[in-house]
Design a protein that fits this description.
Blueprint lengths: L3 E8 L3 H20 L10 E4 L17 E4 L1 H10 L2 H7 L2 E3 L1 E6 L5 E5 L9 E5 H13 L4 E4 L4 E6 L4 E5 L4 E9 L6 H5 L4 E17 L6 E7 L2 E8 L8 E9 H9 L2 H11 L7 E4 L3 E10 L3 E2 L2 E3 L5 E2 L7 H21 L7 H29 L4 H16 L1 H12 L2
Parallel strand pairs: 1-2, 1-11, 2-8, 5-13, 11-19
Antiparallel strand pairs: 3-7, 4-7, 5-6, 9-10, 10-11, 12-15, 12-16, 12-17, 13-14, 14-15, 17-20, 18-19
Amino acid sequence: MADQQYDVVVAGAGMVGAAFAALLATKELAAKEQAANEQGKSLRIAILEARPFQMPDLSEHFDPRVVALAEPSRQLLEDVGVWSQIATRRACAYQRMEVWESDGTGHIEFDCVEVRQSSLGHIVENALIVDGLLQKIEMLDNVDLLCPVKLTGLETTKDGVVISLEDGATIFTKLLAAADGAQSKVRELCGLQLRQWEYGHHAIVTSITTEAEHNFTARQRFLPDGTLAFLPLETEQGDCHQCSIVWSQQEEVAESLMALDDNKFCTALEQAGSHCLGKIVAVDKRYKIPLKQRHAVDYVVPGIALMGDAAHTIHPLAGQGVNLGFQDVITLVEEVERAVSRGLSPGDMWALGRYQRRRKPHNLGTMAVMEGFKRLFEDQPLPVRLLRNYGMSAINRLGPVKNLLVRQAMGL
């Protein structure tokens, strides 16, 4: 007999795990209120997080990790009831995007006006999203946040999963939803196989202050040995001289950039970005992250489902990683709701199979497109570069085609 019992346990209290728990609990509560079913029992949900959560001090600096939220992801946060709080604290809606090549004339510009939207998306710090979701979870009576606890073992039964913790305690759940990151312990313990390969690149991430305002424009430059993105940020006071950067470089180049002092790094960054924002006035602490592509062969086994980075990681070329994870959340919540409404267990294999069939093709398709873009913009022979530049400029002149691309990227 397990020490504790839940209907659903979520491994990982990051953005994807916290969003899943909050959305499932919120939608279930709304459905019960609509049906006036006060006697119905709510699903009991627990979140297991191995690391103690401590909100970083963002009073003087931005969180170096940011996400470019597409509209469906922003809508998820609104459905949960946390978006207004996040947006009030700090979120930057970007209205334009510029993409250009370093050694040619290829250039594309996207504008939200052309697709009749108020913005193309929102740049938001990871920490603000997690903090908003965890504050919401604290208000939900049927969700317990168990932190810090470390999962050490799993045993599947005909009714669900028994989870063993490092302190010797056990938890029984009908569904274990794994959102415990790229190095997922749940994925390892339940034997789900992984296909992965190294990009040979590292991403340097940090926040910078620039001489010129960003004008709510996201900028991405394709370099011969990587990509450089300037993602606009805005302070609570409305200052628009800050950007988050994601600079993907070959491993040895990234190492040499990390070894530079701040002044020399800023000079290198100005040159790599073709001085698009003038001088780089200041730079925060830099972080270097190895880039790998991973994809689980299967997302589900009886009673267990993978979400987000536990199921797939992709190159940060278009900022789609978290958006894919949030789409996993929306789909798995829908399938759990469908199963429960039919009197089935939240971890019923029929529901989990539907989740995998709905998400796997979309995730694989996005990963294939991102891999194609990465290979296309790697250093190529002159004829390929000329054709690539011509294609970018041609698309920029074809309004309907360009607008179709941007609407798909926005999830519209």
